[in-house]
Amino acid sequence: MLPDRQGIDDTFAPDPGGEAGIEIEYKETHLREGVTGTKRARSYDITITGNQVDNCPVGILARTVPADAEDQQARETDRPYSFTITGNTVSNAANAGIRIRSGADGVVATNTVRGVDTAIDIAEEFTTTIQQDLNVVRE
């Protein structure tokens, strides 16, 4: 039996931090010793496609560099590999439809974003060469 959630419908709940419906993020956990600390340990060439996300603070969140309060410079200089966010629909995201926090050589294209004030939010200081084409923004 599930605990009483006071009427909250969380059939498809966002990540435990509560920010994003779908999130790609750099991770170094669960790596074999031979991979840890090498380029193979980095997130690379990740694709998010064909999803529908509704009613989350952020629909899709991407960051390919660890968010480390002790080392902000890494986010500015170490932007490993690429990612693609394409063919998704995000509706009614409170803060941003698609948010790119860090990364390089990414593509954000052919997505539909509805009912949001900020359709695509890219942290310019932590990203480079992010292509944005053919995205549709609707009310």
From TrEMBL:
<protein>
    <submittedName>
        <fullName>Parallel beta-helix repeat (Two copies)</fullName>
    </submittedName>
</protein>
<dbReference type="InterPro" id="IPR012334">
    <property type="entry name" value="Pectin_lyas_fold"/>
</dbReference>
<dbReference type="InterPro" id="IPR022441">
    <property type="entry name" value="Para_beta_helix_rpt-2"/>
</dbReference>
<feature type="region of interest" description="Disordered">
    <location>
        <begin position="1"/>
        <end position="20"/>
    </location>
</feature>
<dbReference type="InterPro" id="IPR011050">
    <property type="entry name" value="Pectin_lyase_fold/virulence"/>
</dbReference>
<dbReference type="InterPro" id="IPR006626">
    <property type="entry name" value="PbH1"/>
</dbReference>
